[in-house]
Amino acid sequence: MLSTPRLTPESYKRLVETARNDPEAFWLRESRRLEWSTLPTTAVDAENGWFADGSLNVSVNCLDRHLATRGDQAAIIWQGEEDSNVLRLTYRDLHARVCALANILRDSGVKRGDRVAIHLPAVVEGIIAMQACARIGAMHMVLFGGFSAEAIADRLADSGAAVVITANVGRRGAKRIPFKTTMDAAIALRGEASTVRRVLVVEVTDDTVPLTEGRDALLTPLLEAAPTTCEPEAMNATDPLFLLYTSGSTGKPKGIVHGTGGYLTWASYTHELIFDHQQGDVFWCTADIGWITGHTYVAYGPLANGATLMLFEGMPSHPMPGRWWDVIQKHGVTTFYTSPTAIRALMSEGNEIPAAYDLSSLRVLGSVGEPINHEAWTWFHDVIGGGRCALVDTWWQTETGGAMISLVPYAVEPRPASATLPLPGVNPVLLDEKGTPLDGAVEGILCIDGSWPGRALTIWNDDALFQTTYLKPYPGHYFTGDGARRDVDGYYWITGRVDDVINVSGHRIGSAEIEDAISEIHDISESSAVGIPHDIKGQGLVVYIVPHEGLSEEQMAGLKDQVIKIIACKVGRYAVPEAVYVVPDLPKTRSGKNVRRLMRKIACGETEGFGDLSTLANPGIVGELIRIVGKA
Ligand code: ATP
Ligand code: MG
After folding, report:
1. ipTM of the predicted structure?
2. 404 CA to middle of ligand 1, Å?
3. Which of 168, 216, 357, 494 could join 325 via S-S bond, C-beta 3.0 to 4.6 A?
4. Which ligand is nearest to the CA of 589?
5. What is the pLDDT of residues 172-182, one digit of tens each?
6. Which residue range or ranges hold the Acetyl-coenzyme A synthetase N-terminal domain (predicted)?
7. How far apart are the first and last CA of the chain?
8. For 207, left (φ over 0), alpha (ψ -120 to 50), or beta?
9. Which domains does the chain have, with CATH numbers?
């Protein structure tokens, strides 16, 4: 049965107007969705930040305040890789476990403002650890499970973390991922200079791992002995909650710091709005907690709103294709939030696979991380959502804390492949290169005017970099680094990163526009468009395409022509590429984004000097692309 949506087109419009007319009152009212130990009396001032005179504790907001009303409701449904391996934690269970771990952290000497590194596979302890840090006012720094020892060592050193929470090993299909061994190697890389003095180990499997005397401890016995209540630390609204590194799509990852009161207000507000969150929903965001999406829409937004969240240990297509659909069917998932990369991969498995599952529990679908092309949008909407679910494309960044431009289900008219409208209270502007705001239907540099509660506080240890990256490029505006087009109805279409804009004979082309056109060719699973210098046109366009597996030679031979034809037809003759490279894969960040800066360099004939590659999921592809481009 369809529940009544939270917002109607009329109430949504009223919300937009209230936010526009009196933002101070609007945000102060929204802050009341949280429980404060001292209520804030101001929303924002440039000097002091958001809700500056308020104080609160994030874990009290995510756990304690739900105990009276939903203590026995599942907070987390965890599905292990093995089908029989399921764990249901009620809000009461979660509260007890968080308190126990918070006590252990305090006993380990962790104080307010200290950094704790969390390096875990998709087990409930990840969320528990984040909440435990929040309870005692420590900042967490979550490391993606797949990071190499070098990537971990850099982040440990930059953050100065003294305590680490990791696992003995993680499971990935038949494979065992050596979490503890990788952590040991990371700490050893810095030798005496390492700041880490305590390593707490979650035993995910029965495997035994070496423990360093005096530094390492298994968590289970400590948890069994720890008290299950823990006095929360009252934090100022503008105290930092966590430190998290960006995906590194455009270069060296930035250590983004988020605050307490503003961030949690934003997480709660956006989670409720964009997913039309309702009592009884089973909310599944597939992101790893090592990324911002996993912070805001796994760990904080859903718990702040008293939701039931789904956490899955396994992979989309293991041990058989359709495993994700199986999880949705088994647990009655109502809200399903994932990335375009995942959607495209699942789409390439064909429609018969999802057709074998009952997906009727689904109500709202979501996408984040990259522009979603028309093909993927339509497939997700029609095949997975059965044409009946709202599909929200949510544009945002690590730095924005939560969604900024997104459909609000049932309140905003959807449009395939558009992130649609800014959320009430968010004021995007499009600028030309000189920084002049542009009106009406136009394409430009996407900036945000004014502030919003979820905006990052700073870059860790480098506020000057925060200023020069986001605030100085276009004074008076927050610079997102992305480009967008606005249509006559005010809908936004993200065109890609500003650095990736290709200027062919004076025509500005966003990478997303070209890739969207190519996505209509069924034999191609993915593509990336980049610009290279061109004597006459200024820039020329180069395209990398990844064909579907199992194509015949004849089909392969026809691909380049199809690409040229579809670009000429959908975008224009001026955009016809100088070269089309057929490649087995595209370089991707570990969060699944295509790294165009590398493809651009390789297309220019460069073979070295690629900068920080630690965030690449598939570094081996770089050499292969160099070879393919060199041979062509
Ligand atoms: P880095 O900042 O280190 O280069 P990153 O920008 O990939 O890495 P994230 O903060 O994880 O790190 O990603 C935010 C970026 O992802 C946005 O700036 C935008 O380019 C892209 N993005 C996210 N969601 C969407 C979306 N729905 N549509 C289009 N692009 C999106
Ligand atoms: Mg970025």
Report:
1. 0.99
2. 12
3. 357
4. 1
5. 888 899 999 99
6. 12-62
7. 57
8. beta
9. 501-631 (3.30.300.30)
